[in-house]
Write a structure and sequence with these properties.
2 copies of one chain form a homodimer.
Chain A lengths: L6 E5 L7 H10 L4 E7 L18 E4 L6 E5 L3 H13 L5 E8 L11 H11 L4 E6 L9 H16 L7 E6 L10 E3 L5 E11 L5 E11 L7 H6 L3 E5 L7 H10 L5
Parallel strand pairs in A: 1-2, 1-5, 2-4, 5-6, 6-7, 8-11
Antiparallel strand pairs in A: 3-4, 7-11, 9-10
Helix pairs in contact in A: 1-4, 2-3
Chain lengths: ~260, ~260
Protein backbone atom coordinates (compact mmCIF):
# COMPACT_ATOMS: atom_id res chain seq x y z
CA UNK A 1 0.00 0.00 0.00
CA UNK A 2 1.17 3.50 -0.96
CA UNK A 3 1.39 5.25 2.40
CA UNK A 4 1.89 8.73 0.99
CA UNK A 5 -1.78 9.16 0.08
CA UNK A 6 -4.78 8.92 2.41
CA UNK A 7 -6.65 5.63 2.24
CA UNK A 8 -10.38 5.93 1.54
CA UNK A 9 -12.41 2.80 2.26
CA UNK A 10 -15.64 2.67 0.26
CA UNK A 11 -18.58 0.35 0.85
CA UNK A 12 -22.37 0.32 0.47
CA UNK A 13 -25.45 -1.83 1.01
CA UNK A 14 -26.88 -1.97 -2.51
CA UNK A 15 -24.04 -4.26 -3.60
CA UNK A 16 -20.84 -3.71 -5.55
CA UNK A 17 -22.59 -3.51 -8.95
CA UNK A 18 -24.99 -0.69 -7.95
CA UNK A 19 -24.59 2.59 -9.84
CA UNK A 20 -24.45 4.50 -6.53
CA UNK A 21 -21.14 3.02 -5.39
CA UNK A 22 -19.67 3.69 -8.83
CA UNK A 23 -20.75 7.35 -8.51
CA UNK A 24 -19.09 7.48 -5.06
CA UNK A 25 -15.81 6.04 -6.38
CA UNK A 26 -15.81 8.50 -9.28
CA UNK A 27 -16.44 11.43 -6.94
CA UNK A 28 -13.40 10.83 -4.71
CA UNK A 29 -10.91 8.67 -6.61
CA UNK A 30 -8.41 11.53 -7.08
CA UNK A 31 -8.52 12.50 -3.38
CA UNK A 32 -6.59 9.48 -2.13
CA UNK A 33 -6.05 5.77 -2.53
CA UNK A 34 -9.54 4.32 -2.87
CA UNK A 35 -10.24 0.71 -1.86
CA UNK A 36 -13.70 -0.77 -2.35
CA UNK A 37 -15.00 -3.63 -0.20
CA UNK A 38 -18.71 -4.11 -0.78
CA UNK A 39 -21.39 -6.82 -0.57
CA UNK A 40 -21.72 -9.18 -3.54
CA UNK A 41 -25.52 -8.81 -3.41
CA UNK A 42 -28.08 -6.21 -2.25
CA UNK A 43 -28.15 -5.84 1.55
CA UNK A 44 -30.73 -3.08 2.03
CA UNK A 45 -32.43 -3.06 5.42
CA UNK A 46 -29.72 -5.19 6.99
CA UNK A 47 -29.10 -2.65 9.75
CA UNK A 48 -26.10 -3.47 11.91
CA UNK A 49 -26.31 -7.21 11.20
CA UNK A 50 -23.10 -9.26 11.30
CA UNK A 51 -22.49 -12.81 10.14
CA UNK A 52 -21.73 -15.15 13.03
CA UNK A 53 -23.10 -18.58 12.17
CA UNK A 54 -21.74 -18.96 8.65
CA UNK A 55 -18.31 -18.25 7.14
CA UNK A 56 -17.69 -15.40 4.73
CA UNK A 57 -16.28 -15.26 1.21
CA UNK A 58 -14.09 -12.39 0.04
CA UNK A 59 -13.04 -12.13 -3.60
CA UNK A 60 -10.95 -9.61 -5.49
CA UNK A 61 -12.90 -8.26 -8.46
CA UNK A 62 -12.26 -5.91 -11.33
CA UNK A 63 -15.30 -3.68 -10.94
CA UNK A 64 -13.79 -0.18 -11.10
CA UNK A 65 -10.93 0.69 -13.48
CA UNK A 66 -7.67 1.22 -11.62
CA UNK A 67 -9.31 0.80 -8.18
CA UNK A 68 -8.62 -2.17 -5.89
CA UNK A 69 -11.99 -3.72 -5.21
CA UNK A 70 -13.34 -6.73 -3.35
CA UNK A 71 -16.75 -8.31 -2.99
CA UNK A 72 -17.87 -10.00 0.19
CA UNK A 73 -20.68 -12.48 0.82
CA UNK A 74 -21.62 -10.81 4.12
CA UNK A 75 -23.39 -7.70 5.35
CA UNK A 76 -22.14 -4.11 4.97
CA UNK A 77 -20.78 -4.26 8.56
CA UNK A 78 -18.94 -7.50 7.73
CA UNK A 79 -17.33 -5.69 4.77
CA UNK A 80 -15.85 -3.00 7.01
CA UNK A 81 -14.57 -5.56 9.53
CA UNK A 82 -13.02 -7.75 6.82
CA UNK A 83 -11.51 -4.78 4.98
CA UNK A 84 -9.61 -3.68 8.04
CA UNK A 85 -8.39 -7.12 9.10
CA UNK A 86 -7.70 -8.88 5.80
CA UNK A 87 -7.17 -6.18 3.15
CA UNK A 88 -5.93 -2.93 4.67
CA UNK A 89 -4.16 -4.36 7.75
CA UNK A 90 -4.61 -0.85 9.21
CA UNK A 91 -7.31 1.76 9.70
CA UNK A 92 -8.24 3.65 6.53
CA UNK A 93 -8.09 7.46 6.93
CA UNK A 94 -11.81 7.79 6.24
CA UNK A 95 -14.70 5.51 5.33
CA UNK A 96 -17.45 6.52 2.90
CA UNK A 97 -20.59 4.44 2.37
CA UNK A 98 -23.11 4.67 -0.44
CA UNK A 99 -24.26 6.41 -2.47
CA UNK A 100 -27.46 4.69 -1.38
CA UNK A 101 -30.36 4.42 -3.79
CA UNK A 102 -33.12 5.85 -1.56
CA UNK A 103 -33.42 7.87 1.66
CA UNK A 104 -31.77 7.05 4.98
CA UNK A 105 -32.93 10.11 6.88
CA UNK A 106 -34.81 10.19 10.22
CA UNK A 107 -35.34 6.79 11.89
CA UNK A 108 -34.45 5.02 8.62
CA UNK A 109 -30.80 5.26 9.56
CA UNK A 110 -31.33 2.51 12.16
CA UNK A 111 -32.42 0.01 9.48
CA UNK A 112 -29.85 1.12 6.93
CA UNK A 113 -26.95 -1.12 5.94
CA UNK A 114 -25.29 1.92 4.34
CA UNK A 115 -25.28 3.86 7.60
CA UNK A 116 -24.44 0.80 9.72
CA UNK A 117 -21.28 0.21 7.65
CA UNK A 118 -20.23 3.83 8.26
CA UNK A 119 -21.12 3.45 11.95
CA UNK A 120 -18.97 0.33 12.23
CA UNK A 121 -16.00 2.35 10.93
CA UNK A 122 -16.77 5.24 13.30
CA UNK A 123 -16.87 2.82 16.26
CA UNK A 124 -13.34 1.79 15.22
CA UNK A 125 -12.23 5.44 15.30
CA UNK A 126 -12.37 6.07 11.54
CA UNK A 127 -14.11 9.35 10.56
CA UNK A 128 -16.98 8.20 8.37
CA UNK A 129 -19.98 9.29 6.35
CA UNK A 130 -22.90 7.59 4.67
CA UNK A 131 -24.53 9.18 1.61
CA UNK A 132 -28.02 8.55 0.29
CA UNK A 133 -29.83 10.01 -2.70
CA UNK A 134 -33.61 10.31 -2.55
CA UNK A 135 -34.03 8.45 -5.83
CA UNK A 136 -34.53 4.68 -6.04
CA UNK A 137 -34.03 4.57 -9.80
CA UNK A 138 -31.23 2.50 -11.25
CA UNK A 139 -30.74 5.42 -13.67
CA UNK A 140 -30.68 8.09 -10.94
CA UNK A 141 -28.66 11.25 -11.64
CA UNK A 142 -25.85 11.41 -9.06
CA UNK A 143 -24.45 14.82 -10.14
CA UNK A 144 -25.60 16.78 -7.06
CA UNK A 145 -24.83 13.89 -4.74
CA UNK A 146 -21.26 13.68 -6.08
CA UNK A 147 -20.76 17.40 -5.42
CA UNK A 148 -21.89 16.91 -1.81
CA UNK A 149 -19.69 13.82 -1.38
CA UNK A 150 -16.63 15.62 -2.73
CA UNK A 151 -17.10 18.65 -0.52
CA UNK A 152 -17.48 16.55 2.64
CA UNK A 153 -14.70 14.08 1.79
CA UNK A 154 -12.29 16.93 1.09
CA UNK A 155 -12.98 18.44 4.45
CA UNK A 156 -12.73 15.08 6.25
CA UNK A 157 -9.32 14.48 4.66
CA UNK A 158 -7.87 17.97 5.08
CA UNK A 159 -9.06 19.12 8.51
CA UNK A 160 -8.80 17.55 11.95
CA UNK A 161 -11.91 15.46 12.57
CA UNK A 162 -13.33 14.01 15.80
CA UNK A 163 -12.13 10.39 16.04
CA UNK A 164 -15.65 8.99 16.00
CA UNK A 165 -17.16 11.39 13.45
CA UNK A 166 -20.13 9.80 11.71
CA UNK A 167 -22.28 11.79 9.28
CA UNK A 168 -25.63 10.78 7.85
CA UNK A 169 -25.93 12.72 4.60
CA UNK A 170 -29.10 12.64 2.50
CA UNK A 171 -29.34 14.39 -0.84
CA UNK A 172 -32.61 15.53 -2.44
CA UNK A 173 -33.55 14.48 -5.97
CA UNK A 174 -32.90 17.86 -7.56
CA UNK A 175 -30.97 19.39 -10.44
CA UNK A 176 -27.89 21.47 -9.66
CA UNK A 177 -29.93 24.61 -10.41
CA UNK A 178 -32.59 23.79 -7.80
CA UNK A 179 -30.27 22.38 -5.13
CA UNK A 180 -29.95 24.76 -2.14
CA UNK A 181 -26.77 23.43 -0.49
CA UNK A 182 -26.16 21.52 2.73
CA UNK A 183 -27.82 21.96 6.11
CA UNK A 184 -26.72 20.69 9.52
CA UNK A 185 -29.72 18.98 11.15
CA UNK A 186 -30.95 16.65 13.84
CA UNK A 187 -32.63 13.30 13.18
CA UNK A 188 -36.41 13.70 12.72
CA UNK A 189 -38.91 11.55 14.58
CA UNK A 190 -40.33 10.27 11.32
CA UNK A 191 -40.69 6.67 10.27
CA UNK A 192 -42.39 4.06 8.15
CA UNK A 193 -45.78 2.88 9.35
CA UNK A 194 -45.65 -0.69 8.16
CA UNK A 195 -48.29 -3.21 7.58
CA UNK A 196 -48.18 -6.53 5.82
CA UNK A 197 -49.79 -7.56 2.58
CA UNK A 198 -51.33 -11.01 3.14
CA UNK A 199 -51.13 -13.45 0.23
CA UNK A 200 -51.63 -17.16 -0.29
CA UNK A 201 -49.07 -19.36 -2.03
CA UNK A 202 -49.97 -22.05 -4.63
CA UNK A 203 -50.05 -24.62 -1.82
CA UNK A 204 -52.64 -22.61 0.15
CA UNK A 205 -50.26 -21.34 2.82
CA UNK A 206 -50.18 -17.68 3.89
CA UNK A 207 -47.21 -15.37 3.38
CA UNK A 208 -46.69 -11.66 4.03
CA UNK A 209 -44.94 -8.79 2.23
CA UNK A 210 -43.90 -5.74 4.23
CA UNK A 211 -45.47 -2.56 2.87
CA UNK A 212 -45.75 0.88 4.41
CA UNK A 213 -46.06 4.62 4.20
CA UNK A 214 -43.70 7.24 5.54
CA UNK A 215 -45.04 9.44 8.35
CA UNK A 216 -43.34 12.52 9.81
CA UNK A 217 -44.43 13.10 13.41
CA UNK A 218 -41.79 15.75 14.05
CA UNK A 219 -42.85 19.38 13.75
CA UNK A 220 -39.34 20.75 14.31
CA UNK A 221 -37.81 22.96 11.63
CA UNK A 222 -34.26 21.75 12.36
CA UNK A 223 -34.72 18.14 11.20
CA UNK A 224 -33.25 16.26 8.26
CA UNK A 225 -36.71 15.60 6.80
CA UNK A 226 -37.50 19.31 6.86
CA UNK A 227 -34.17 20.31 5.26
CA UNK A 228 -34.71 17.82 2.43
CA UNK A 229 -38.22 19.14 1.82
CA UNK A 230 -36.74 22.63 1.50
CA UNK A 231 -34.26 21.46 -1.16
CA UNK A 232 -31.16 21.06 1.04
CA UNK A 233 -28.93 18.05 1.58
CA UNK A 234 -29.27 17.09 5.27
CA UNK A 235 -26.15 16.44 7.35
CA UNK A 236 -26.79 14.75 10.71
CA UNK A 237 -23.88 13.88 13.04
CA UNK A 238 -24.64 10.46 14.52
CA UNK A 239 -23.49 8.79 17.73
CA UNK A 240 -23.29 5.16 18.80
CA UNK A 241 -23.51 5.74 22.55
CA UNK A 242 -27.25 5.16 22.80
CA UNK A 243 -27.57 5.94 26.52
CA UNK A 244 -30.68 8.05 27.09
CA UNK A 245 -29.42 10.39 29.80
CA UNK A 246 -32.78 12.14 30.15
CA UNK A 247 -34.59 8.91 31.02
CA UNK A 248 -31.57 7.85 33.10
CA UNK A 249 -32.02 10.99 35.22
CA UNK A 250 -35.76 10.38 35.50
CA UNK A 251 -35.13 6.79 36.62
CA UNK A 252 -32.51 7.96 39.08
CA UNK A 253 -35.19 10.08 40.74
CA UNK A 254 -38.17 7.76 40.52
CA UNK A 255 -36.76 4.19 40.52
CA UNK A 256 -34.76 4.72 43.71
CA UNK A 257 -35.35 1.42 45.44
CA UNK A 258 -34.48 -0.47 42.28
CA UNK A 259 -31.18 1.10 41.43
CA UNK B 1 -58.39 -10.57 23.09
CA UNK B 2 -59.18 -10.12 26.77
CA UNK B 3 -58.92 -6.34 27.21
CA UNK B 4 -59.11 -6.37 31.01
CA UNK B 5 -55.49 -7.53 31.40
CA UNK B 6 -52.37 -5.80 30.09
CA UNK B 7 -50.94 -7.33 26.93
CA UNK B 8 -47.29 -8.34 27.14
CA UNK B 9 -45.60 -9.01 23.79
CA UNK B 10 -42.61 -11.32 24.11
CA UNK B 11 -39.94 -11.94 21.50
CA UNK B 12 -36.22 -12.78 21.28
CA UNK B 13 -33.41 -13.39 18.81
CA UNK B 14 -32.30 -16.88 19.83
CA UNK B 15 -35.50 -18.33 18.35
CA UNK B 16 -38.76 -19.56 19.83
CA UNK B 17 -37.30 -22.87 21.08
CA UNK B 18 -34.48 -21.24 23.12
CA UNK B 19 -34.63 -21.83 26.90
CA UNK B 20 -34.24 -18.07 27.48
CA UNK B 21 -37.61 -17.12 26.00
CA UNK B 22 -39.26 -19.89 27.98
CA UNK B 23 -37.71 -18.45 31.16
CA UNK B 24 -39.05 -15.00 30.20
CA UNK B 25 -42.58 -16.32 29.62
CA UNK B 26 -42.52 -18.17 32.96
CA UNK B 27 -41.33 -15.04 34.77
CA UNK B 28 -44.23 -12.81 33.69
CA UNK B 29 -47.12 -15.02 32.58
CA UNK B 30 -49.24 -14.16 35.60
CA UNK B 31 -48.72 -10.38 35.18
CA UNK B 32 -50.88 -10.05 32.09
CA UNK B 33 -51.92 -11.63 28.83
CA UNK B 34 -48.69 -12.89 27.30
CA UNK B 35 -48.36 -13.30 23.53
CA UNK B 36 -45.17 -14.69 22.03
CA UNK B 37 -44.06 -13.85 18.48
CA UNK B 38 -40.50 -15.01 17.92
CA UNK B 39 -38.17 -16.09 15.10
CA UNK B 40 -38.40 -19.71 13.94
CA UNK B 41 -34.57 -19.93 13.90
CA UNK B 42 -31.62 -18.27 15.70
CA UNK B 43 -31.17 -14.61 14.68
CA UNK B 44 -28.25 -13.52 16.85
CA UNK B 45 -26.26 -10.58 15.51
CA UNK B 46 -29.08 -9.51 13.19
CA UNK B 47 -29.14 -5.98 14.60
CA UNK B 48 -32.03 -3.91 13.32
CA UNK B 49 -32.35 -5.89 10.08
CA UNK B 50 -35.75 -6.12 8.42
CA UNK B 51 -36.92 -8.36 5.59
CA UNK B 52 -37.70 -6.39 2.45
CA UNK B 53 -36.85 -8.57 -0.55
CA UNK B 54 -38.54 -11.79 0.46
CA UNK B 55 -41.97 -12.51 1.98
CA UNK B 56 -42.43 -13.69 5.55
CA UNK B 57 -44.11 -16.73 7.06
CA UNK B 58 -46.03 -16.55 10.33
CA UNK B 59 -47.33 -19.72 11.96
CA UNK B 60 -49.25 -20.35 15.17
CA UNK B 61 -47.41 -22.86 17.33
CA UNK B 62 -47.99 -24.64 20.59
CA UNK B 63 -44.68 -23.86 22.26
CA UNK B 64 -45.77 -22.62 25.70
CA UNK B 65 -48.66 -24.17 27.62
CA UNK B 66 -51.66 -21.85 27.73
CA UNK B 67 -49.82 -19.01 25.95
CA UNK B 68 -50.68 -17.83 22.43
CA UNK B 69 -47.48 -18.17 20.45
CA UNK B 70 -46.35 -17.64 16.87
CA UNK B 71 -43.15 -18.29 14.99
CA UNK B 72 -41.97 -16.04 12.18
CA UNK B 73 -39.45 -16.68 9.41
CA UNK B 74 -38.04 -13.13 9.68
CA UNK B 75 -35.79 -11.14 11.97
CA UNK B 76 -36.61 -10.08 15.55
CA UNK B 77 -37.67 -6.64 14.25
CA UNK B 78 -39.97 -8.30 11.69
CA UNK B 79 -41.57 -10.24 14.56
CA UNK B 80 -42.52 -7.03 16.39
CA UNK B 81 -43.89 -5.43 13.22
CA UNK B 82 -45.92 -8.51 12.28
CA UNK B 83 -47.19 -9.00 15.83
CA UNK B 84 -48.69 -5.55 15.91
CA UNK B 85 -50.23 -5.60 12.44
CA UNK B 86 -51.40 -9.19 12.05
CA UNK B 87 -51.83 -10.65 15.56
CA UNK B 88 -52.52 -7.97 18.17
CA UNK B 89 -54.16 -5.36 15.87
CA UNK B 90 -53.15 -2.84 18.59
CA UNK B 91 -50.13 -1.82 20.60
CA UNK B 92 -49.26 -4.23 23.41
CA UNK B 93 -48.90 -2.52 26.81
CA UNK B 94 -45.25 -3.50 27.05
CA UNK B 95 -42.76 -5.50 25.01
CA UNK B 96 -40.12 -7.75 26.58
CA UNK B 97 -37.32 -9.34 24.57
CA UNK B 98 -35.01 -12.21 25.56
CA UNK B 99 -33.85 -13.62 27.82
CA UNK B 100 -30.80 -13.59 25.55
CA UNK B 101 -28.18 -16.29 25.94
CA UNK B 102 -25.09 -14.06 26.24
CA UNK B 103 -24.26 -10.41 26.93
CA UNK B 104 -25.71 -7.39 25.11
CA UNK B 105 -24.03 -4.71 27.19
CA UNK B 106 -21.89 -1.82 25.88
CA UNK B 107 -21.63 -1.50 22.09
CA UNK B 108 -23.01 -5.05 21.69
CA UNK B 109 -26.51 -3.63 21.87
CA UNK B 110 -26.10 -2.25 18.35
CA UNK B 111 -25.56 -5.75 16.88
CA UNK B 112 -28.18 -7.40 19.04
CA UNK B 113 -31.40 -8.75 17.57
CA UNK B 114 -32.80 -8.97 21.11
CA UNK B 115 -32.30 -5.26 21.74
CA UNK B 116 -33.33 -4.25 18.21
CA UNK B 117 -36.70 -6.00 18.67
CA UNK B 118 -37.23 -4.04 21.89
CA UNK B 119 -36.10 -0.84 20.15
CA UNK B 120 -38.58 -1.42 17.33
CA UNK B 121 -41.37 -1.56 19.93
CA UNK B 122 -40.04 1.56 21.70
CA UNK B 123 -40.00 3.47 18.39
CA UNK B 124 -43.69 2.57 18.12
CA UNK B 125 -44.35 4.05 21.56
CA UNK B 126 -44.45 0.77 23.49
CA UNK B 127 -42.40 0.78 26.74
CA UNK B 128 -39.89 -2.01 26.21
CA UNK B 129 -36.97 -3.87 27.70
CA UNK B 130 -34.44 -6.38 26.46
CA UNK B 131 -32.90 -8.88 28.90
CA UNK B 132 -29.63 -10.76 28.50
CA UNK B 133 -27.92 -13.26 30.78
CA UNK B 134 -24.12 -13.47 30.68
CA UNK B 135 -24.22 -17.21 30.11
CA UNK B 136 -24.21 -18.79 26.64
CA UNK B 137 -25.03 -22.25 27.94
CA UNK B 138 -28.20 -23.99 26.77
CA UNK B 139 -28.53 -25.15 30.38
CA UNK B 140 -28.02 -21.67 31.90
CA UNK B 141 -29.68 -20.97 35.27
CA UNK B 142 -32.22 -18.17 34.73
CA UNK B 143 -33.26 -17.83 38.41
CA UNK B 144 -31.62 -14.44 39.03
CA UNK B 145 -32.54 -13.18 35.55
CA UNK B 146 -36.20 -14.05 36.14
CA UNK B 147 -36.19 -12.09 39.40
CA UNK B 148 -34.84 -9.05 37.56
CA UNK B 149 -37.35 -9.45 34.71
CA UNK B 150 -40.26 -9.69 37.12
CA UNK B 151 -39.23 -6.64 39.11
CA UNK B 152 -38.85 -4.48 36.00
CA UNK B 153 -41.98 -5.80 34.24
CA UNK B 154 -44.07 -5.17 37.35
CA UNK B 155 -42.91 -1.58 37.48
CA UNK B 156 -43.43 -1.06 33.74
CA UNK B 157 -47.00 -2.33 34.06
CA UNK B 158 -47.95 -0.54 37.26
CA UNK B 159 -46.35 2.90 36.99
CA UNK B 160 -46.51 5.58 34.33
CA UNK B 161 -43.64 5.05 31.90
CA UNK B 162 -42.15 7.35 29.25
CA UNK B 163 -43.77 6.46 25.91
CA UNK B 164 -40.45 5.50 24.32
CA UNK B 165 -38.89 3.78 27.34
CA UNK B 166 -36.30 1.25 26.25
CA UNK B 167 -34.14 -0.58 28.77
CA UNK B 168 -31.07 -2.67 28.06
CA UNK B 169 -30.83 -5.05 31.01
CA UNK B 170 -27.87 -7.42 31.42
CA UNK B 171 -27.70 -9.95 34.22
CA UNK B 172 -24.47 -11.44 35.59
CA UNK B 173 -23.97 -15.19 35.81
CA UNK B 174 -24.31 -15.42 39.58
CA UNK B 175 -26.26 -17.32 42.21
CA UNK B 176 -28.98 -15.50 44.14
CA UNK B 177 -26.64 -15.36 47.14
CA UNK B 178 -23.89 -13.56 45.20
CA UNK B 179 -26.14 -11.26 43.13
CA UNK B 180 -25.91 -7.63 44.30
CA UNK B 181 -29.08 -6.14 42.73
CA UNK B 182 -29.64 -3.75 39.84
CA UNK B 183 -27.66 -0.67 38.90
CA UNK B 184 -28.62 2.20 36.60
CA UNK B 185 -25.73 2.73 34.15
CA UNK B 186 -24.58 4.29 30.91
CA UNK B 187 -23.39 2.29 27.89
CA UNK B 188 -19.65 1.53 28.13
CA UNK B 189 -17.28 2.19 25.24
CA UNK B 190 -16.29 -1.45 25.12
CA UNK B 191 -16.48 -3.73 22.11
CA UNK B 192 -15.30 -6.83 20.32
CA UNK B 193 -11.99 -6.52 18.49
CA UNK B 194 -12.65 -8.85 15.61
CA UNK B 195 -10.40 -10.59 13.24
CA UNK B 196 -11.09 -13.38 10.79
CA UNK B 197 -9.90 -16.94 10.86
CA UNK B 198 -8.76 -17.80 7.31
CA UNK B 199 -9.52 -21.36 6.12
CA UNK B 200 -9.52 -23.16 2.81
CA UNK B 201 -12.47 -25.24 1.62
CA UNK B 202 -12.16 -28.70 -0.01
CA UNK B 203 -12.14 -27.01 -3.43
CA UNK B 204 -9.16 -24.80 -2.50
CA UNK B 205 -11.14 -21.57 -2.08
CA UNK B 206 -10.67 -19.30 0.95
CA UNK B 207 -13.35 -18.60 3.55
CA UNK B 208 -13.37 -16.63 6.79
CA UNK B 209 -14.87 -17.08 10.25
CA UNK B 210 -15.33 -14.04 12.47
CA UNK B 211 -13.51 -14.40 15.80
CA UNK B 212 -12.67 -11.80 18.40
CA UNK B 213 -11.92 -10.76 21.93
CA UNK B 214 -13.82 -8.30 24.09
CA UNK B 215 -11.99 -5.10 25.03
CA UNK B 216 -13.17 -2.44 27.50
CA UNK B 217 -11.71 0.96 26.64
CA UNK B 218 -13.94 2.80 29.11
CA UNK B 219 -12.46 3.66 32.50
CA UNK B 220 -15.72 5.10 33.86
CA UNK B 221 -17.19 3.56 37.01
CA UNK B 222 -20.78 4.27 35.91
CA UNK B 223 -20.88 1.87 32.94
CA UNK B 224 -22.82 -1.33 32.35
CA UNK B 225 -19.62 -3.35 31.98
CA UNK B 226 -18.37 -2.10 35.35
CA UNK B 227 -21.67 -2.82 37.12
CA UNK B 228 -21.69 -6.39 35.79
CA UNK B 229 -18.12 -6.92 36.94
CA UNK B 230 -19.16 -5.82 40.41
CA UNK B 231 -21.98 -8.39 40.49
CA UNK B 232 -24.91 -6.11 39.60
CA UNK B 233 -27.45 -6.36 36.80
CA UNK B 234 -26.91 -3.34 34.56
CA UNK B 235 -29.90 -1.23 33.47
CA UNK B 236 -29.19 1.22 30.62
CA UNK B 237 -31.98 3.44 29.23
CA UNK B 238 -31.52 3.54 25.45
CA UNK B 239 -32.58 6.09 22.83
CA UNK B 240 -33.13 5.86 19.10
CA UNK B 241 -32.53 9.51 18.31
CA UNK B 242 -28.87 9.08 17.35
CA UNK B 243 -28.14 12.77 16.71
CA UNK B 244 -24.75 13.64 18.20
CA UNK B 245 -25.47 17.14 19.51
CA UNK B 246 -21.92 17.63 20.73
CA UNK B 247 -20.46 17.10 17.25
CA UNK B 248 -23.40 19.05 15.80
CA UNK B 249 -22.38 22.06 17.92
CA UNK B 250 -18.73 21.63 16.92
CA UNK B 251 -19.70 21.51 13.24
CA UNK B 252 -21.93 24.53 13.68
CA UNK B 253 -18.86 26.47 14.83
CA UNK B 254 -16.22 25.07 12.48
CA UNK B 255 -18.04 24.03 9.26
CA UNK B 256 -19.66 27.42 8.78
CA UNK B 257 -19.36 27.81 5.04
CA UNK B 258 -20.74 24.32 4.49
CA UNK B 259 -23.88 24.54 6.53
Amino acid sequence: MDNSRPVILITNDDGITAPGICALVEAVKDLGQVIVVAPDSPQSGMGHAITIGTPLRLDKVDEFEGIESWQCSGTPVDCVKLARDKILHRKPDICLSGINHGANHSINLIYSGTMSAAMEAAIEGIPSAGFSLLDFSFHADFTVAQKVVRSIANRMLNEKMPEHLLLNVNIPKLTEADFKGMKLCRQAYAKWEENFDHRVDPRGKAYYWMVGRFVNMDEGTDTDVQALEEGYASVVPVKFDLTDHQIKNWMHETWKELV
